[in-house]
Amino acid sequence: MNMEELPKPELDSPEIKDEVPQAVQDVEEIGLEPPPAEEFSRKEPKTAKEKSEIASIMKLLGDHGLTFALGALERETGINKDEIKDLTVETDVRQVLGQYESKTDKDSYKEAFIALQRFVDQSLDSTRAELSQLLYPVFAHTYIKLLVNNYESEARNFYNEFAKGFGEDSPYIEDIRRLATVTNKKQLAQNDVITTFKVRHFIIRMTRDSLLSLKRHINDRNIQVLIDILEDHLFIDQFDGLPRTREQIDAVSGGLLGEAKRDANKSKIQLGLLREPEVAEIEEDDLMEDEPKKKKKARAPTLRKTKNDGNAPNPTRVPLLGLQEHLLTAGDKADWLSYYKDLEHRVKLTGDQKLSAVFYSVLNADPDCLPASITISDDSTVLCAGFEDGCIRVNAIGGDNLREMKSLPQLEMLDKDRLELENILQVSETPTRKLLGHTGAVYGVSISPRKDFLASGGEDGTVRLWSLFVYQCIIVHRGHLWPVWDVTFSPYGNYFCSVGMDRSVRVWVTDKENPIRMMAGHYSDVTVCKFHPNGNYIATGGEDRCIRLWDILDGKCVRQLTGHRSSISVLSWSTACGKYLATADIGGHVLFWDLSKSTKSDEILIARFSVDEQKGTVKLPVQHQHITSLTFSRCGSLLTAGTIKGEIISWDVARVLVDSENEEVSTTATGFAKNYRFHQPYRTKRSPICFLQYSRRNVLLAAGPFSR
């Protein structure tokens, strides 16, 4: 056939339209200008489904930087950039809400929930506790289904009738109250509850016999509403054995999506402490040869870690520069010797031993610009505070001024063959320095063990690494999409971790720009992070009321702990043995865990403490119970918490451990440990407690802003 005989294709033919996007993409890849808009036919999508599909394609082109192809598609379809975000979000929400759409009669929802309540009430005493776990998730999903199907009046009546059945001591009372703020389908699409429920299932652990009786009940009565919720929105983690008691269930209840699965805590973890480096002690020669040498005093038994624990990881499992003896400088060795000396003079806080405390007040701070974060170096010589205006102040508190690098003429005079870190430093003329760089509040600061670096994170979403020798920002790490809530250094330096509003956990190295690990798994903001004393693990907590333990080696989550009823605000490891973890929340509750004891969450939890446990005292308002700081004593026998109201409270956890071994922990009717206070609460006049830390000799150091 001759070329003249070929029919001339129409511009609106399917062949031409299908080839246009690919042609534009090819043009872009070779760097040419796209064809003019007149060469393309314009066909606007008619239905909402077509718009959503095209918007998703346009979003994909924008994410990959294909701007020419994106522009051509905009001109052809008439959808602009402002509509892309709205349409794609609307598509995601519609897919989620579509799971709740149903043609079920509106009265069936209420009848189904009443049938479930009746089934739980009439069940055996041994299974009633675990079957009652179904009430909250079924209540929440039923309420959402009523709103999605435009039964707003029925949803309001349903909530008012059944929400009061959940008492104030319910683990999910805050979520139930949050549901009351959603009254129509439009609000539901913008609520974080539906965001949480849209992908994940609510996890409930239940015996196989209880699950079979539940399914038999709803299938025999053909309760379709319960069948749909059970299949689409709940995950029943069934097991063989005896049903759990109410106390065992309450110990792990409260997580945003229930409790962890049974297989989530089966990985082996090594929580033992590593051997500390051998550093030869420097002895001074006698000044006078004829002076008789003094007889050395016998030394007390050392508290140093001269060998690895049996459960300690291999020292080379994760490279820890601070423990490699051949890499230690003269200054590092001096720091280790100072640490060993403090160990010999450490006071063990047990029995009638009194607790000594020092409070550092941040003075002259603007009432509208208070410190948002405070930290103190491990040797208690440097205090750093991050403020709401983005400023960071570094202060010397050990008596001497801050260290700084020598001037350039002084450095040129040094012998380059014998150049060490200690030779290039000198004591500065000022005890304080000011660091500027953040454009918003600084929510997290952490000083490296060698006091050479400072890590900070804040409202601007950046993580900054500062040099404490030249007091300048070395690098700005940009990875978090939203504000950074906390940063912390590894106990042996080199690594530091950051967490934030984007629900991610990132591990950085001081000599690299990009993170070496990025972990995700939390269902809401991650608010706090802390390295394990052996440097191989990181514990994190967040607003999903779940604690996760991450292995730095491979970035996997090796433990999930639930039991908090409010957002987790702070956590602390016991540096005496590495087995114990304490976590606290904004509701004034502290949970004390033994991670080496078992793989079951209800057995890992040793005790619950409350800042408002004492009888005969005025009950604190909820907003005053917010725990802002938490720390173990260096000997591991005390656990101390500080509140936003300015109270410092300590518990004798050594006595709790003894009673726990004998299963004789004294508790209140609500399950909180009682009569374990080590002292009466210390109170400031108005200053909140922002930071707590025990010095190497077990003196309690506290810090906070001075409030008038």
* Share of helix, binned: 25-40%
Which spans of ≥5 residues are poorly predicted at pLDDT below 50? 1-42, 85-91, 283-291, 293-302
For the biggest β-sheet, the strand order reads 4-5-6-9
Structural class: alpha+beta
> What average pLDDT do the residues reach?
82
Question: What name is given to the CATH topology of the largest domain?
Answer: Methylamine Dehydrogenase, Chain H
Work out the strand percent. Answer: 15-25%
Written account of the structure:
There is one protein chain. This protein has 708 residues and is of the alpha+beta class. It folds into 3 domains: 9-98, no CATH class; 106-244, Serine Threonine Protein Phosphatase 5, Tetratricopeptide repeat, CATH 1.25.40.500; 357-705, 7 Propeller (Methylamine Dehydrogenase, Chain H), CATH 2.130.10.10. It is built from 18 helices and 31 strands. The strands form 9 sheets. It has a 4-stranded antiparallel beta sheet with strand order 4-5-6-9, with no helix packed on it. A hairpin with a 5-residue loop joins β30 and β31. The longest helix is centred in the N-terminal third of the chain and has 18 residues, at 81-98. The protein starts with 13 loop residues before the first helix and ends with a strand. It comes from Oikopleura dioica (Tunicate). Residues 104-234 form the TFIID subunit TAF5 NTD2 domain. Residues 1-20, 39-49 have a biased composition (Basic and acidic residues). Belongs to the WD repeat TAF5 family. GO terms for molecular function: RNA polymerase II general transcription initiation factor activity.
